[in-house]
Amino acid sequence: MKIDRLLAITIYLLNHKRTSAGDLANRFEVSTRTIMRDIDSLCLAGIPVISTFGVDGGYEIMKTFQMEKQVAGEIDYSFILAALKGLSTAYPDRELENTIEKLQSLGENSTQSIVIDLGVANEHKGINSLLSMLSHAIKIEHIVEFTYTNTDNITKSAVVEPVSIIYKWYHWYLLAYQPSHETYCLYKLIRMEHLTIHDQENTMLHIPKDAMHIWESRNETRTMTTIKLRCSSSIRSRCLEYLNGTIIEEYSDGDFLYEIMVPENEQFWFGTVLSFGDKVKIIEPPEIIERVVATCSEVINQYKNIE
Question: Is residue 307 assigned to a domain?
């Protein structure tokens, strides 16, 4: 319906600032001519949409404009509730529980068709204490200090300004600003020890969205590698589930050639491949084959003298 699209365009412009007619057309799956008519309708309705011409031109809503009426419906609340309940399975927090209670009271009769369970993120109980302390530090905008052990097993003290807590790659991370290097870094919580909150406030205001963008554009150092494996038909479902790759060839005996692109030094995929035993064989690249052979030899040596 047009009225729904007009509301959606208004919300989109409020959240994304200046946007071209082409981008809006792609977003809402209509023609640019339709978008232009919709913008005219918004202007007639009193929404202060500004048109800017040129290479960086587009539509935007005046910064002084605010929407005061309720724009979320029952379906919107069900999605928000599902997301918050999923978060609560990973991050126990009293304020979060209170928020869920409020939203549930707004839609008691709604049917929740989506359930998100992030309980795996809550399996290490020691993480909860770190999450609570870091959340508090972020809220009061105070510097924190902790000892940190990196992937090279080097332990150092870190004094940083916490920005936000992130759950990605199956782990909790702290996104923080490191004043000594004037850059943003990600710290895995499981590698933190001796966390303390300083009395000193942060030296500057940090916007989580902007900080994450800076980290992603400047500090993503993981080297990706493409691996081809010949897999037995007996582990087909497990390959698809755990390795998230593509079957590029199938053989008459049921075996298949599987291709994955993974972070070179990441442990999850490597451990998964080893767990498949003789049901999988790495075809390429040679350096990964050598790594598997070396690891297996080290394991065998551990048990040579056992009678």
Answer: no
| Beta bridge pairs of residue 161 | 177
Dihedral over Cα of 191, 196, 202, 206: its sign = positive
* Residue type present at position 110: S
Could you list the residue range(s) of the whole structural domain that residue 251 is in?
Answer: 224-302
Q: Which residues, other chains included, contact 117 with Cβ-Cβ below 8 Å and sequence gap of 6+?
A: 86, 89
pLDDT (tens digit per residue) in 73-129: 777 778 888 888 888 888 878 788 878 877 776 655 556 677 777 776 675 778 888
Residue indicated by tokens 């030296």: 203
Instruction: Read off the amino acid at residue 292.
Output: V
Query: In the prediction, which pLDDT does 68 show?
Result: 61
How far lies 195's CA from each of 143, 159, 181, 191, 206, in Å? 11, 10, 20, 11, 21
Name beta bridge partners: 232.
none
Query: Residue 239 domain-assigned?
Result: yes
Q: Which of 1-10, 242-251, 270-279 has the lowest mean pLDDT?
A: 1-10
Which of 242, 228, 225 is closest to 276 using CA atoms? 242
> 209 and 148 in one domain?
yes
Is residue 192 within 8 Å of residue 148, measured between CB atoms? yes
- Residue 188 inside a domain? The answer is yes
Domain stop point among 193, 218, 243: 218
pTM for the model stands at 0.65
- pLDDT, tens digit (0-9, with 9 covering 90-100), for 156-200: 999 999 999 998 877 899 999 999 989 999 999 999 999 999 999
Contact of 99 with 88, CB cutoff 8 Å: no
| Overall number of domains in the chain | 4
Is the C-alpha dihedral spanning 180, 185, 189, 190 positive or negative? negative
Q: In whole angstroms, what is the distance from residue 56 CA to residue 18 CA? A: 9
Assess if residue 178 is contained within a domain: yes
Residue 251 and residue 270 in one domain? yes
Residues 146 and 201 in one domain: yes
Same-domain status, 243 and 288 = yes
